[in-house]
């Protein structure tokens, strides 16, 4: 955890954008909260997919478990937000730790099937336990207390936006430190060549278990944020579509670089909102076209495309004749 993880000036400018955004887009704070939650969810997947190379099609299992944990806690009389987040993180970590032993044993195809199976199992379990979870009608009666005994969760989303931004930034710092530490570098080595990492004595399995557990805990925190800020938990928080969407966000922005998760989630949520407003029925058609263009035009997502543009521009500056 003592690796070089200092922020560059450009990174501080990046984080300045969501800080000042409410000054110019105060009417979109509810949407902004959803973007921040999606960013956190995408970050959790980036740790295992982008750095450790673990492919998952059931990451919504941890997101939904965190959402139901925080929602059930609040619906039964304890609506303190911070303790709800902590408990959700613990539940997600325990679930992720148990699942990780199945995930790290297999190849990519086996991991896809295991994570997909876990997600489907939890979805059906929540659907069957309607007396507890609300089933298809969702879990209502989620009443949140004032944040730190000071700010209520208002309909305009001011408190929710600030709350989500602080949690996102705090966990981003944790992940930034992890991926820039020797542990994070070992995850990249495992992704690139697990046999060579075995040969030099790296405990690959235990490190993948740790990475998967941390990822599950952060995904659960994202789910808890959604439950707390909307004061409702729907069965869709565990649905396969949510797992697919977060995978799309990561591919869109660029996996294996934390800012790719942030950029991809932001573009996806804004595009979804704008396109659905233009055409509520066929908006996925245009979103599909956008995804195809991004994948074909830029290997490595939006950030990969930007890197190539910058590299080409620098090359032209060094050699104008080219």
Report the major sheet.
none
Count of the domains? 1
- β-strand amount: under 5%
Share of residues in helices:
over 70%
If you average the pLDDT, what whole number results?
89
Low-pLDDT residue intervals, each spanning 5 or more residues: 1-5
Beta-strand segment tally: 0
**Broad shape:** globular
Q: Element order, helices and strands?
A: HHHHHHHHHHHHHH
Continuous helix count:
14
| Oligomeric category | single chain
Radius of gyration: 20 Å
| Straight-line N-to-C gap | 44 Å
Classify the secondary structure makeup into a structural class.
Answer: mainly alpha
Written overview of the protein:
The protein is mostly helical and 322 residues long. The chain has one domain. The chain is 74% helix and 0% strand. The protein is built from 14 helices and no strands. It has helices spanning 9-24, 29-51, 60-75, 81-103, 108-128, 130-133, 158-179, 182-192, 194-199, 204-230, 240-253, 258-278, 283-297, 301-318. The longest helix is centred in the last third of the chain and has 27 residues, at 204-230. The chain is globular. 43% of the residues are buried.
Provide a compact summary of the structure.
With 322 residues, the protein is an all-alpha fold.
């Amino acid at each position: 955890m003592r690796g070089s993880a200092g922020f560059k000036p450009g990174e501080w400018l990046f984080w300045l954008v969501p800080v000042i955004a409410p000054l110019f887009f105060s009417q979109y704070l509810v949407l902004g909260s959803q973007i921040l939650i999606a960013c956190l969810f995408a970050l959790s997947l980036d740790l295992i997919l982008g750095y450790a190379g673990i492919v998952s099609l059931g990451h919504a299992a941890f997101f939904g478990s965190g959402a139901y944990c925080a929602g059930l806690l609040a619906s039964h009389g304890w609506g303190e937000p911070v303790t709800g987040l902590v408990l959700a993180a613990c539940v997600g970590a325990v679930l992720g730790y148990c699942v990780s032993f199945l995930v790290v044993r297999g190849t990519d195809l086996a991991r896809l099937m295991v994570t997909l199976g876990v997600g489907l199992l939890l979805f059906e379990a929540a659907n069957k336990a309607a007396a507890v979870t609300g089933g298809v009608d969702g879990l209502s009666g989620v009443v949140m207390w004032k944040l730190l005994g000071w700010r209520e969760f208002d309909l305009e989303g001011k408190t929710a936006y600030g709350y989500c931004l602080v949690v996102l930034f705090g966990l981003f710092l944790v992940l930034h430190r992890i991926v820039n530490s020797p542990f994070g570098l070992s995850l990249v080595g495992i992704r690139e060549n697990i046999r060579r990492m075995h040969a030099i004595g790296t405990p690959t399995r235990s490190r993948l278990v740790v990475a998967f557990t941390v990822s599950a805990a952060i995904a659960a925190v994202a789910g808890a944020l959604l439950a707390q800020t909307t004061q409702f938990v729907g069965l869709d928080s565990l649905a396969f579509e949510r797992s697919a969407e977060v995978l799309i966000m990561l591919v869109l922005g660029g996996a294996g670089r934390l800012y790719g998760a942030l950029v991809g989630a932001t573009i996806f949520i804004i595009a979804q909102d704008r396109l659905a407003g233009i055409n509520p029925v066929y908006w996925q058609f245009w979103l599909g076209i956008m995804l195809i263009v991004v994948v074909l035009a830029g290997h490595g997502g939006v950030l990969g495309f930007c890197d190539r543009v910058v590299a080409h521009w620098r090359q032209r500056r060094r050699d104008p004749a080219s």
